[in-house]
Amino acid sequence: MKMNTQISSWNLLAIFLIGTMISLSSCNVQSNNPLDVQFGDPYVLLASDGHYYMYGTGGVQDGFGCYKSDNLKDWEYQGVVYQGNTPDSWAESCFWAPEVYERDGKFYMFFSANWKVNPTAELENFLIGVAVSDSPTGPFKEMSDAPLFNPGYPIIDANVFFDDDGRCYLYYSRCCYKHPVESEVAAWAREKGMFDEIEESWIYGIEISPDFTHVIGEPVLILCPPEKMSDAQAEWESRSVTAGEANRRWTEGSFLIKRDGTYYMMYSANFFGGENYAVGYATSDSPLGPYVKSPDNPVLEKNTPKGGSVTGVGHNSITWSRDGKQLFCVYHGRTAATGDERVVFIDKMKIKNGRLTVDGPTIK
Q1: Secondary structure class of 219 (helix, strand, coil)
Q2: How far is CA 63 from CA 56, 187, 194, 273, 281, in A?
Q3: Among 170, 180, 205, 220, which one is least packed by beta carbons within 10 Å?
């Protein structure tokens, strides 16, 4: 009887220790900025197997690779998980911004690429496709020999949101390509002799079927750059123009999350290849808007004016600790050490009292 009591005590102790370790691993996942991962547009999936999987732009010719982690700090390369530009693929080049979603035991990858069908030889012929796999590490195979849909203009940066009522929504960015827009910023740039016109990218949303085979209804305009220079958002969203980097104003890389009945859409503005790339957010009480931009924008931007070394931060996604208590902002950026190469950063973020904040960019 005494021996059985000892065994029971040790078992209880073991259970306690294991439970404590699991709890700590859930709450105290950490990052190590910048990560040794050369991705643009990073996206992290916390899968049902308890592991984190990261996907992004770059590292694979005409396709995508994947990294795996248990703690958001140490990442192991899993190899190529999707290969495009094959005889049976609709996509031929410029494979960008993959995001992977786990649904009913399957994994679905949304991505952007140039469509092979291009009778007018457009320089930007980007559309969105979907590929599926039984595993987060692939291989992912395209669900169709054509893009998901064609709105009549090039689109990138797919993000999918699953609402509480079971409906699904796709968000994407209309490219700047052949989309000049008149605004006070455009008039200012023309008067200064900087640019004759300013092209803009806009974020749209549309309902999508739960099986990801087709869209439902018509696209709804969600976010675009401010028309007036007096707008509180105009300064930070126009820095690529006012700094002379490009004749474009971007609104792209959207990511939607819902908290306490409010929809928070994070988005990036400015040139992804420049130092002024930055992140803001807007809120709504409906998945398709209208959305109101936060007065706190930008919530993530370069830190060099404050003595830091990080620039060009943007195109973020959101992941969380295993217990769901801690949110993390996953994004790309550059440092003096990494040069022009985009690398991945992960910083803690929170949504409290209706405000979204990111504790970054940081170097750790």
Answers
A1: strand
A2: 10, 40, 37, 20, 29
A3: 180
Q: How far apart are CA 152 and CA 122, in angstroms?
A: 12
Q: Which residues pair with 267 in a beta bridge?
A: 280
- What pLDDT is attached to residue 15? 33
Tokens of 131: 């590929």
Q: Does 22 fall in a domain? A: no
CATH number at residue 45: 2.115.10.20
User: Taking a C-beta distance cutoff of 8 angstroms, is the pair 98, 62 a contact?
Assistant: no
* Tokens found for residue 148: 């998901």
Between CA 131 and CA 60 the distance in angstroms is: 16
| Cα–chain center distance at 345 | 12
Q: Is residue 85 assigned to a domain?
A: yes
Question: Average per-residue pLDDT in the chain?
Answer: 93
CB atoms within 10 A of CB 116: 15
User: pLDDT tens-digit profile of 281-327?
Assistant: 999 999 999 999 999 999 999 999 999 999 999 999 999 999 999 99
